[in-house]
From TrEMBL:
Lineage, opening ranks: Eukaryota, Fungi, Dikarya, Ascomycota, Pezizomycotina
SUPFAM superfamilies noted in UniProt: S-adenosyl-L-methionine-dependent methyltransferases
Transmembrane segment boundaries: none
Name used for this protein in its record: tRNA N(3)-methylcytidine methyltransferase
Region (Disordered): 1-23
Molecular-function GO terms, alphabetical: tRNA (cytidine-3-)-methyltransferase activity
Keywords: Methyltransferase, Transferase
One Gene Ontology term from the biological process aspect of the record: methylation
Domain Methyltransferase type: from-to ranges: 179-285
The keyword Cell division appears for this protein: no
Pfam name, any one: Methyltransf_12
Similarity section: Belongs to the methyltransferase superfamily. METL family.
Known function: S-adenosyl-L-methionine-dependent methyltransferase.
């Protein structure tokens, strides 16, 4: 997935040490002419353009704090904690790999607008739209057939962003059922399996790409599981008419949707919500993380990638949507028809948390500034009302 999948800061690259420039010698009589005859040192370079985004664009900075205070505790300390390093006036952007809550400025917002207009004016042909929208799972099968080396990221952010995952994996938590949808090659499922100490945890990892499920099922961590197995991987389409193998209505405590909702076309959202609502127990939650509008992955799309508003096709044929906060709130709080699992004819999720995660990732060696934007939320199936 290339940069689309950069959900962790890029690996720290050491900057080569630069020799300090010698002050150039002038004869005593010429010293008063210094400013006329010496070309001043070039100011510190703004870096390279990052995937088409001009390097000269500057992020919005917060006012400088004089001490490494409680307000900005991670500024000069490592290891990096997500969500706690703010870029302030006077900071060297290239001193760290990532900065949190970095807002883009008006110039960048205008650039996003221009890019979107350009993309819309150069959209995918009708013939190709049909090619990419018809059987989208076959493009994911191809993806998982081609990219074996890129799998199994170390997702340190999982528990930090969703602390409940730390709780349910504790030894004495008790019986709990998790369903991960769009599990791909297991980038979330395997780290969870590795950290799990709870003998009563069951994790169902589903994906509609049979190839992805083959990848999960062929891993030693999967095949070596003792009976009863914690992790079960199955082919399942979240927007289909059936429930996943082994799961019944109101049987799931937590549903993980990590970069899968963006792979659906907008006309699949309602059925996906219906299935998730049916599967969850009352009080059960969806843990959601996905692409946000204006993310570099959206901005960098060139000609022939736009399928529909905020919906694109990547070079490998896989589709991706970019959400904004209000739209997600509307989707996840809308009422869902045809949900009969607990005798309610219509129902809707409760939006517990919904936030935009803006981060500037830095490639320190190439001096690239990458403005990333992700959406994160928790959506709850309401507790059954006693009436
Ligand atoms: C961007 S990948 C994310 C994979 C994984 N969650 C991760 O974060 O590494 C999106 C995944 O969603 C799967 N997917 C897309 N549409 C789906 C659907 N309708 N039902 C189930 N899985 C789907 C794709 O096959 C792909 O594995």
């Amino acid at each position: 997935m290339g940069i689309d999948d950069v959900t962790e800061p890029a690996v720290d690259a050491q900057l080569p040490t630069r020799n300090k420039q010698q002050r150039q010698q002038l004869t005593k009589g010429m010293e008063h002419m210094r400013s006329y005859v010496i070309i001043p040192e070039t100011p510190q370079s703004a870096g390279e353009d990052a995937y088409g985004v001009p390097a000269t664009y500057e992020p919005v900075r917060k006012p400088a704090t004089t001490i490494v205070s409680d307000e900005n505790p991670q500024k000069r300390s490592d290891p990096f904690q997500f969500g706690t390093r703010y870029l302030e006036e006077g900071d060297d952007i290239f001193a760290h790999n990532a900065w949190d809550h970095v807002e883009v400025d008006a110039q960048y917002s205008e650039f996003i607008e221009q890019q979107t207009t350009f993309q819309r004016e150069n959209q995918v042909s009708d013939f190709d739209k049909q090619r990419f929208n018809d059987k989208p799972e076959k493009w994911w099968d191809k993806f998982y057939g081609n990219n074996q080396a890129n799998f199994f990221k170390d997702r340190k952010w999982l528990v930090q962003e969703f602390p409940i995952l730390g709780e349910v994996t504790k030894e004495d938590y008790g019986a709990v059922t998790l369903l991960e949808v769009g599990a791909g090659a297991g980038n979330t499922a395997f780290p969870l399996l590795a950290m799990n100490r709870n003998p009563e945890l069951r994790l169902h990892a589903c994906d509609y790409s049979a190839k992805a499920i083959d990848v999960i099922r062929s891993q030693p961590a999967y095949t070596a599981q003792e009976s009863p197995a914690v992790l079960q991987a199955d082919v399942w389409d979240i927007a289909g008419q059936d429930l996943p193998p082994g799961l019944t209505p109101s049987s799931v405590d937590l549903v993980l949707l990590i970069f899968i909702f963006s792979a659906l076309s907008p006309d699949q959202w309602t059925q996906a919500l219906r299935n998730i609502f049916t599967l969850l127990k009352s009080g059960g939650e969806v843990l959601f993380r996905d692409y946000g509008r204006g993310d570099l992955a959206q901005v960098r799309f060139k000609k022939g990638r736009y399928l529909d508003e905020n919906f694109y096709v990547r070079g490998d044929g896989t589709r991706v949507y970019f959400f904004d906060e209000e739209e997600l709130r509307r989707i996840w709080s809308s009422s869902i028809d045809g949900v009969t699992a607990d005798s309610r004819q219509t129902a809707s999720f409760e939006v517990r948390d919904l936030a935009v995660d803006r981060r500037m990732l830095v490639n320190r060696q190439r001096k690239l500034k990458m403005y990333r934007c992700w959406m994160q939320g928790r959506f709850m199936k309401p507790l059954r009302s006693e009436t």
